[in-house]
Amino acid sequence: MHTELVEILRCPQTGERLRLEQPQYRDERVQSGWLVAEDGQHRYPIRDFIPRLAPESNYADNFGLQWNKFRRTQLDSYSGQPISADRFWTSTGWRPEDIAGQYVLDAGCGAGRFAEIALQAGAKLVALDYSSAADACYANLQHYRNLHVVQGNIYALPFPKAFFPYIYSLGVLMCTPNVERAFANIPPMLAPGGRLCVDFYGLGFGTMLHAKYVFRPITKHMAPQTLLKLLQSAVPVLLPVSQLLGGIPVLGRYLKRVVPVADYTGVYPLNAEQLKEWALLDTFDMLAPKYDKPQPAGRVRRWLEAAGLAQVEVFRPGHIVGRGSRLP
C-alpha cells in the first residue's frame, strides 16, 4: 500500500479519517500494519500490501476462489487480445487522456481486467473488491506505481464522498444482495463534474431461458471448491456440444443456450486452449455466485436519474450499460 492511500481512506463504519499505525515497509510500500479510526474504536489490518476493510469471509467468497484460480485469464496482456479494453472504452465512453492522472475508482475489480486498462491510460486507480480477488488484482498489477488496492464493501465504501472524478463498476452490481442499494452507494462518491459507468446483465424473456437459471438453484448452494471440481470434468464435454450446436445455421445461436457452458467460439478471437480456459472460468462465474439479478434497461435509467446524474445514457452493447455525470 502506498502511504498516500491513507489520505483518501475512511472508516467504513464511522466515516472518520484513518491513521497508520505500526507500518512495516517493503519496496517503499506498506506491507503490513494497522489503520485506526480517529476515535480509536475501529482497527483494520493491512496484510500483504492491502488494507483489509471487509470481513475475511463473505458472500463473495466464490469470486475470491475464481479470480485467484484464473487471475490472468481475462487480462488483455495475457490473452493477447483487446477484449477487456474494447469493453471498457465502449462502455465508459471515456478516452485515455480523460482519466490520465485522475483518481479512478474500480468498484469491484476482480482480478483487475479493467483496472489494467485504466492503469495503462495513466489513471491513479483505486481497485476495490469485497473478496480475496483483491489479492489477485494486486498480484497481477503491482508493477504499476499508480495502483491502490483495497479490500472493502460496496455497501460501506471507505472513501470520502464527492472525491472521485471517474468511477466504474463493470460486471459486479447484479451479483450483490440488493442491487439497487449497491448502486445507490456509488454516485455519492463522484466529484462535481465526475463521470460514472455501471453495467448489468440484461433482464428479458431470453435472459431467463438461459440454461444457467435451471441449474443455479442447486449450484449456488454448493461449496465453490466442489462446484469447480465438477466443472473441471464437465466443461470439456459440454463445450464441444455447444460448439456443435452453435454451428447450425440460423438456429445455432439459440440452441447453444440450452447447454450450461460459457462458449465464446466466434465471439472472441481466442485459440482453442483459451476457449477452454474462458469456458471453465465463466461457467463457474455463471453458476457459483450466491446472487445473480439481471436488470431491465428502464430500471437502470430510473436509478441513474434518481441519483441526480445528468447526461444519462442507457444502452446495450452486450450488457446493459448505464452512465451519467454529476453536475459541477
Question: Could you explain the architecture of this structure?
Answer:
- The chain is an alpha/beta fold and 328 residues long.
- It is 35% helix and 21% strand.
- It has 13 helices and eleven strands.
- The chain is globular, with a radius of gyration of 20 Å.
- The relative contact order is 0.13.
Q: What top-tier CATH class of the largest domain fits best?
A: Alpha Beta
What count of helical segments does DSSP give? 13
- Report the biggest beta sheet as strand number plus sense, adding barrel if it closes: 7 strands, mixed
Briefly note the structural class of the backbone. alpha/beta
Tally of discrete structural domains = 3
Strand content: 15-25%
User: For this structure, what is the CATH homologous superfamily of the largest domain?
Assistant: Vaccinia Virus protein VP39
SSE series:
EEEEHHHHEHEHEEHEHHHHHHEE
Side by side, the strands of the main sheet go 7-6-5-8-9-11-10
What CATH calls the topology of the largest domain is Rossmann fold
**Total strand segments:** 11
- Terminal-residue CA separation: 31 Å
Radius of gyration: 20 Å
Specify the overall morphology. Answer: globular
Uncertain regions: pLDDT < 50 for 5+ in a row?
A: none
Helix content: 25-40%
| CATH architect. name of the largest domain | 3-Layer(aba) Sandwich
What is the average of the pLDDT values? 96
